[in-house]
Amino acid sequence: MVFSNGDVPDDFGVSGVSCYFPASFVRQEALEKAHGHKEPGKYTIGLGQTEMAFCSDKEDSVSLALTVTQMLLDEYEIDPSSVGFLGVASETLVDKSKSIKSALMPLFGDNTDISGVDVKHACYGGTQALFDGLGWLHRTYPIQHRLAIVVCTDIAVYADGPARCTGGAGAVALLLSPGAPLVFDNGLESTHGHHGYDFFKPVGAHNCEYPIVAGKESISAYLSALSTCYKLYKRKSKAYAGRDKLSLVDFDAACFHSPFTKLVRKAVAVMVAEDAREGGRVRGEEKMEGIVAGLRAQEEPSDLSVISPESLKASEQTWQEITSPNLEMNRRLGNMYTPSLYVQLVGYLSRLEEEKREEGRERRILMYSYGSGSMASVYSFTLNEGMTERLRRMIDVSRSIVGRLDEREERTPEEYGETMAQREKFYTQRVPSTPSSLSSSSLYPLFPGTFHLSSIDDQYRRQYARVDTRRV
Amino acid sequence: MVFSNGDVPDDFGVSGVSCYFPASFVRQEALEKAHGHKEPGKYTIGLGQTEMAFCSDKEDSVSLALTVTQMLLDEYEIDPSSVGFLGVASETLVDKSKSIKSALMPLFGDNTDISGVDVKHACYGGTQALFDGLGWLHRTYPIQHRLAIVVCTDIAVYADGPARCTGGAGAVALLLSPGAPLVFDNGLESTHGHHGYDFFKPVGAHNCEYPIVAGKESISAYLSALSTCYKLYKRKSKAYAGRDKLSLVDFDAACFHSPFTKLVRKAVAVMVAEDAREGGRVRGEEKMEGIVAGLRAQEEPSDLSVISPESLKASEQTWQEITSPNLEMNRRLGNMYTPSLYVQLVGYLSRLEEEKREEGRERRILMYSYGSGSMASVYSFTLNEGMTERLRRMIDVSRSIVGRLDEREERTPEEYGETMAQREKFYTQRVPSTPSSLSSSSLYPLFPGTFHLSSIDDQYRRQYARVDTRRV
Question: Hydroxymethylglutaryl-coenzyme A synthase N-terminal domain spans which residues (chains A, B) (predicted)?
């Protein structure tokens, strides 16, 4: 039975975004040297990364989620009693049973009627939580008129070795509602699920924070799932929205899960080659007709991770215009797992008014989410420019977030290495235990208002505290 | 933007259910003796449990999920290409990143466009996956006409000690669609989320399969969340469905998360007392007017876990008629965590035609889901008796499932203890490793068609195999 008080709105989507990242970072140029790479550029050019955020042992996925959720509530002046759904995505688990979501309940006071728990599938979880939040709005909004929040929280750390430089940390919170500035193009989302072992974190014998990674396989799985999802997205766009020969030219931004930005560069090349093969337009093709014509005539390569010079060339303008500028936070924070795709919304929004709007043209944002193991989706938002006030708020908040990148403190590779060693030790430390980085001499500052882990008691219960919200 | 090919149906719900449980069990009477309780009845009367299912080390939450999903596909002749959502709930994690859902993808062949990953919050996860699946149907069914599947899979094991007898194991799969025999009463679901540590499974230093349990607190949290949710459910029933003074008299069945059935007995007493206080009717009140009148006059006790003799008496007929008969699988399998609530739908459906239908009266089923940490919801289904053929299939499948309880093999408490020791050892065993219970002399049989773990390779990748589907 459905008890409806009204129609289902047709403009559900994202109407608020916030982002928290830790106050410490290490420079990739310094890491390259410290890791013994004589020629500079291994991480900066090879991976396309400039800095990497990291957390000491006083931050965990719960504290990050507490901080970003409180930020969202404050920045958008959300009445906690108006929230009816709260979904949390993470692959940085502190518990195999209890949800991070339950630890966020104190932020909502007397309102305990909040649906949603934790969702888990590698870096893809945030996308699933978004889809679930939208489904919840479709199912309940006409009855209850309440809002949804989705939180992505992760700390990416790797064992000492070649993958260590691809770490990062951060959290994103999204507010979902009708009348959203970023309207979800419902029904076009195209998914590819597959059973694989390219990156995972087995419990038991492998008792540490670090994943098991098959790097090459993961890159290949990321790109081939992208190709599958993008083709399906095009088919659905044609079937459900009557959009034929859709290509990246039809988008104002293309955002990607970004383990490192050089992989995203490859992803854009794969998509542009796909556009060309399908007879779609390519940005800047008038200046390189021969190259695009060549791509049009080529068959799809069997190994998508081998990027041809032609597809790199043909996709350069696309990359420069709709993807690269949104990646600043990814370059300076590193891989954040579940938030990695969503910080690009922050990047896009922070720059929005600097660009010119073409009259009568819809501004659309393409999103590619990937999680090892694997799950992947291509979906899209349409910018709802009528939502002036809400959009303005999102732009202001996004600018302030990007500005905070410069307020972080740099640490040396040695200090970073020590912090990782502290985290390793703390992970399996006998309880009761206290994070070593809590000591007053700690090198690891926290931004005002940050929640942090204060102790784990003898019953393994985690206690959290919050630093002063005022700047001192 | 919403691209709709039709209206949203108003009869989404459960149109298929299947259940897998392991082929071995231990008798609670034997366990009582073996655990040194001189007086019989500690587990059988004290907890209300008769048998307990258990898995050897060749079964894990993934293999259980593979088995039950294949069973559902077969029993309801579901075309794998018709499925668009697959959500998996578990708190028996084998990985902190990769989802169990991704390991089920091979069962769906070429259909890889399947949304949904894993959801996690103790025993509550299945309910969230159900809500998410329903939201997905509301959001996408008018466009795509595809079906949803929800899978609950868990193995409940406890360290040697007083909680060990409250283990169990099993998996449930639900098919969700419009035109469902069990229509979800959309919008009435009432939730209570709370940050607590009554039962949890910390990662790191506590590196084992067993939870940390605060038994008393958990019972108290279970009952107090029930009271909160039930009150809210009544308020929503009045506000959205015009049902005033709703009580358990209005339901054909009341199903509960069941750690052990004696706790469910208490839950029914708490609800009946609540019904009485609110002026609602009580089953059989004509035979005990004084008692019910006494309850009506009482204030709500501050500690709900102290059950008064009056509320026990007043709730006895309710318990006997709408709850106890559905608990057979819970009594004989033990706590199954996420599937524990949903096997009662099997119990209810297996008995459905033996009861008489009252003319013109809707048959409704109340559900109480609880997960430590904590999340709880009260919600309901309405039986759609017009769906004769689908309902018939659900009844037939349910009877066959209940019948399979008698096909299991009994093991002694000593054999059970050895199996737990094997699981403990296997959990942290160095890879590559092979389950010891795979040896040909193993005491632990598997039903035909059961998937099982065959090995963990040197890269921690789990391999699965399936036993012959024919009975030999």
Answer: 9-181
Q: Annotated catalytic, A257?
A: yes
| A425 is known to lie in a ligand binding site | no
Q: Which residues in B lie closer than 8 A to residue A210 (C-beta atoms)?
A: none
Task: Quote the longest CA-to-CA distance of chain B.
Answer: 69
Task: Give yes or no: A208 in active site.
Answer: no
3-state DSSP call for residue B159? Answer: coil
Read off the pLDDT band of B460 (50, 70, 90).
very high
- Chain B closest-CA separation from residue A201 CA (Å): 5
Parse chain B into domains and list their residue ranges.
Answer: 13-466
Measured between beta carbons, the chain B residues lying within 8 angstroms of A241 are 1, 3
Distance from CA of A129 to the nearest CA of B (A): 9
> What is d(CA A400, CA A346) in angstroms, rounded to the nearest whole number?
10
Look at A460 and B135 and tell me if their CB atoms are within 8 Å: no
- pLDDT reported for residue B4: 56
Catalytic residue among A19, A55, A123, A229: A123
The answer on pLDDT for A155 being more than 60 is: yes
**Tens digit of each residue's pLDDT (9 = 90 or more) over A251-305:** 999 999 999 999 999 999 999 999 999 999 999 999 998 999 999 999 999 999 9
Q: What is the pLDDT of residues A422-443, one digit of tens each?
A: 999 999 999 999 999 998 777 7
Q: Classify domain A13-466 at the CATH topology level.
A: Peroxisomal Thiolase; Chain A, domain 1 (3.40.47)
DSSP bridge pairs for B199: B213
